[in-house]
Specification:
The protein is 37% helix and 24% strand. The protein is of the alpha+beta class. The longest helix is centred in the N-terminal third of the chain and has 33 residues. The protein is globular. Bound molecules: coenzyme A. The site of coenzyme A has 20 residues, from strand 5, helix 4 and helix 5. Keywords: Acyltransferase, Cytoplasm, Nucleus, Transferase. This is N-alpha-acetyltransferase 40.
Length: 250
């Protein structure tokens, strides 16, 4: 073999360095995900958003790991998902498989936001996870489901605000989610909340029955979050229907 020129030596050095940097980036990202999953009290990181009030609605939200959820609440979430989604799943290649959905919803890594009225009526929930996705730390929103009676009152949007705040303070790069292409109301909802087609979504030519939507999270804002007043409006949404309430006073 001939002697390597100084140009090719430099090139391999650069490649090695780039590989090392990439390995470090992935290791850092994984440690961010691990740290987020270890947080004992996620609610404490976004408590100013967990009370949602309009003139005819008083909602409180709690955030729990799946294994901390009350059995009845988990069963309600599974039932609501079936009521909202079964037909939509049945009309695409996924089909509805309740066992598989329950398995997904009860996975150890599942976190839940549960929204209920002051009188205890359960109104909405989100199943989410902190995870690595295509080499990046993301908050993946598996479900956002609102009872028919609770819709178009800003609750879904508030739930997304909570997810975005959690993503920001735990330094996740995106809130990402999978949406069915034949669910136009969900698409309108996510679009209104600032979500757009993610680069990991299947190419349009594939005409897949789902797409990946996301919102990039500016993690530099997390410091600002610590400093903002507890009575600030949800910072990510235009036209919110209610203001946040200072939960420290209640
Ligand atoms: C999609 C869903 C989560 C929206 O929740 P929601 O609490 O009703 O939404 P919000 O009131 O916060 O809506 C915020 C904005 O999104 C848009 N939007 C919400 N629902 C919409 C609909 N059905 N059609 C068109 N736009 C809609 C509107 O711009 C709305 O603002 P506006 O009411 O001031 O016009 C709820 O309809 C739902 O649970 N649907 C069934 C389950 C589902 O499809 N989940 C999503 C896939 S996992």
């Amino acid at each position: 073999m001939g002697k390597k020129s100084s140009i090719s030596i430099n090139k391999s050095k650069e490649k090695r360095q780039a590989r090392k940097l990439e390995q470090r980036r992935i290791a850092d990202a994984m440690s961010q995900v691990t740290s987020a999953n270890k947080i004992e009290d996620l609610a404490a990181l976004c408590k100013e958003l967990l009370v949602y009030q309009t003139k005819d609605l008083q909602v409180e939200m709690l955030i729990q790991r799946v294994n901390q959820l009350d059995k009845n609440v988990l069963n309600w979430a599974i039932d609501l998902t079936e009521r909202n989604m079964k037909k939509l799943y049945e009309t695409c290649a996924w089909g509805w498989n309740k066992e598989r959905k329950v398995e997904e919803m009860t996975d150890d890594s599942a976190w839940y936001i549960i929204a209920k009225e002051k009188n205890g009526t359960l109104l909405a929930f989100s199943h989410f996870r902190f995870d690595m996705d295509y080499g990046e730390p993301v908050l993946y929103c598996y479900e956002v489901q609102v009872e028919a009676a609770g819709r178009r009152r800003g609750l879904g949007q508030r739930v997304l605000c909570v997810l975005e705040k959690l993503a920001r303070v735990t330094r996740m790069r995106f809130v990402r989610l999978t949406a069915l292409t034949h669910n136009p109301s969900a698409y309108a909802f996510f679009k209104a909340c600032g979500y757009s087609l993610d680069e990991t979504s299947p190419p349009i030519e594939e005409a897949a029955h789902y797409e990946i939507l996301s919102k990039a999270i500016d993690t530099n804002d997390s410091q600002k979050d610590e400093e903002t007043s507890q009575t600030e409006k949800c910072p990510l949404s235009d036209g919110m229907k209610a203001v946040s309430v200072n939960t420290q006073q209640s």
